[in-house]
Amino acid sequence: MSVVKTERRPRGELARVLVVDDEADIRELLDLTVARMGLSADCAASVAEARVFLDRQRYQLCITDMRLPDGDGLEIVKLIGERYGETPVAVITAFGSAQNAVAALKAGAFDYLAKPVALEQLRSLIKSALRLPRQSDAESDGYAGASSGQLIGTSAAIENVRQLIDKLARSQAPVYISGESGTGKELAARLIHDRSSRRAAPFVPVNCGAIPENLMESEFFGYRKGAFTGADSDREGFFQAAKGGTLFLDEVADLPLAMQVKLLRAVQEKKVRKVGSAAEEVVDVRIISATHQALKACVDTGLFRQDLYYRLNVIELRMPPLRERHEDVAPLVAALLARICGEKAPRIEPQALRALENYSFPGNVRELENILERATALCGDNAVVVDDLQLAPTAVSGGSLGRDGETLDDTINRIEKQAILEALTKTAFNRTAAARLLGVSFRSLRYRIERLGIEE
């Protein structure tokens, strides 16, 4: 068995990288790049040779081709995930082979590179992989504890979220965070970023529904001086601002179809072109997206591109609604009262706490915070009682969720439809003005009107 490898150095002297590729010129390119970064590499030409190296040596990174003479890169990804979990794996895919890249990321790959391999992207990937925290580091900083720093609660649902966040932080795979409004989707995205190798770089949150459609391309990708009227100087976009870090696309379902096409190319090729520029530039960002809408339903109705959906939804993190974790209400109340009032926080009477624990929380944690802010302003004798909470009776669990025993979804849809109709009536069915009145984007309002079947 012939194995191409670099000269072995004493164990622990240099970070070691395992390169697996059946093409000698690719192995040589990767070996040379790794050496110039002050690292040490071992090179294998097959799955079998890679197994031999993994049995002999611990590696800080493995880079493997997807197509090998005796198997494929997914075998190596799965092997390392099962037996050498501390070693991140990056895969090399054929140009335009998005399906292979997604499959590798789902299998646990750290990141991917497309052929022909761009040296700038390769160096960036290696640097990111070597900055990954080890599992022991995560445990020592208290992250594995019950409260995980910022995610409050001990329910099974929130514990599952913590565990998945910890796994996602060790990957570069795009993440889609689903969940209702107020469940903490941006908080989850920040935790993934803060636990990742990108934590020293920017976290850039973007509300996709708040950007005018005619400005989207320049806001996302930047522009060159003179690209359009008013472009008096070069300007960076969101992708450039998040260089080396994480770009969080909130309410991604609100992106128009034309912008979805441009975003798909940026995600696939890891390159963007400024408005008015003839050249593309490499961007090193991780994409995390979220929306309160059912994104798959948007795909089915033609409002969201299927190919972009599969690129963004490589791994899904579902944030559970508060009604699914009532045991977390008490610790959340304590934490929120401390945040709102500090050391002068009023006590909450047992009956008031029970009322909150039985409440269905259509607005989730955000609604709980609003309820407590109102209650602390209304309460007397430094104690919050049931009347101070002003809970809607139809949203209390244990009785009927709505009229004639309708489901929670039916109740929420009815209330939402009523609020939209009231806003449309006040604005003489001017949808732009109604969207402004409701505090949502025009595109989001249009989607809700179609979903709820509202007619003038």
TrEMBL record:
Stated name of the protein: Transcriptional regulatory protein ZraR
Entry annotated with the keyword Transcription regulation: yes
Biological processes annotated in GO: phosphorelay signal transduction system; regulation of DNA-templated transcription
Start and end residues of each Sigma-54 factor interaction domain: 151-377
Domain Response regulatory: 16-130
Modified residues (4-aspartylphosphate): 65
Any single Pfam family the record assigns to this protein: Response_reg
Organism this protein belongs to: Candidatus Accumulibacter appositus
Molecular function GO labels: ATP binding; sequence-specific DNA binding
InterPro entries: AAA+_ATPase, AAA_lid_NorR, CheY-like_superfamily, Homeodomain-like_sf, HTH_Fis, P-loop_NTPase, Sig_transdc_resp-reg_receiver, Sigma_54_int
Swiss-Prot/TrEMBL keywords: ATP-binding, Nucleotide-binding, Phosphoprotein, Transcription, Transcription regulation
Transmembrane parts of this sequence: none
Gene name for this UniProt entry: zraR_2
